[in-house]
Amino acid sequence: MRIDLHCHSDVSDGTRSPAEVMRRARQAGLDVVALTDHDTVAGWREAAETAAALPGGPEFVPGIELSCKKNGDSLHLLGYLFDPEQPELAAELARIRDDRVIRARRMVKRLRELGVDVTWDQVRALAGGESVGRPHIAGAMVAAGAVRAIDDAFTPDWIAPGGRAHVDRYALDPVRAVRLLNGAGGVSVLAHPRARKRGYVFGGEVIEELAAAGLGGVEADHPDHAPADRARLRDLAGDLGLVVTGGSDDHGALTGDRLGRETTVPAAYRTMISERLPADPRSR
Predict the structure, then answer these.
(1) Each residue's pLDDT tens digit, 126-158
(2) For the Polymerase/histidinol phosphatase N-terminal domain, which residue ranges apply (predicted)?
């Protein structure tokens, strides 16, 4: 049984539609796949309907990748099988999405002041869906000839944190995010905590704090994790009673269509599902 619990569609910053993600998941031999777009669940229906119509699956898991911030550093939290209409969580998702648009507009303005010929309409067209992100701005910069490749935009010269055109945005405190997901009947997993080249390096003390708040698991098997970091995360997960997950973090063409490159073992997936909390706190 092959299980990929981390991938994105063009509803956020991937390049494939939710339907195409499901079709490619089947072609990749996946039995279970979670769609975890950034701060939105807008792709769930299309993905679920496509997966159900495909002969032989795959099983669709509704998910999300929530934008959080810890001590000024970006931290991402994967959430699964939660009720997106839970009022408090729904309000936070709307606030995050709205702020993404505000932030992107301000970044476009800064780029234009720096002489880069990009427009908001270009960025919005590249985004397509409701979740606008820096990769869409980077794509517009490539089209304008300001940089050669998308990765070249993520530097201090441009849109990396602290860069000339970078703008901070609203993000959740991760402890609160864990509690919101749990309160909506879901389960939370810390995404790529040791993706060093992208600046995600969180020590055991952060994972311990999140575990105390109700974190369900840690994503140890990720394409950007070195073997030593994977081993350390497994040890931490064992000490804290957390599930170890794996996912490709596929973004379609942006990441080389790598669905299934990293997977979650079936026993861990079953444990994760069994640890879901009732959505109504009164029924706990």
Answers:
(1) 887 667 888 899 999 999 999 999 989 999 999
(2) 3-70
DSSP secondary structure, the chain, as one string: --EE--B--TTTT-SS-HHHHHHHHHHTT-SEEEE--BT--TTHHHHHHHHHHSTT-PEEEEEEEEEEEETTEEEEEEEES--TT-HHHHHHHHHHHHHHHHHHHHHHHHHHHTT----HHHHHHHH-SS---HHHHHHHHHHHTS-SSHHHHSSTTTTSTTSTT------B-HHHHHHHHHHTT-EEEE--TT-GGGT----HHHHHHHHHHT--EEEEE-TT--HHHHHHHHHHHHHHTPEEEE---B-GGGGTS-TTSS---HHHHHHHHHTPPPSSGGG-
Across the range 116-127, mean pLDDT stands at 92
CATH of range 3-92+170-283; options 3.10.450.350, 3.20.20.140, 3.30.160.150, 3.40.50.80: 3.20.20.140
- 180-215 residue pLDDT tens: 999 999 999 999 999 987 778 888 999 999 999 999
Whether this model's pTM surpasses 0.90: no
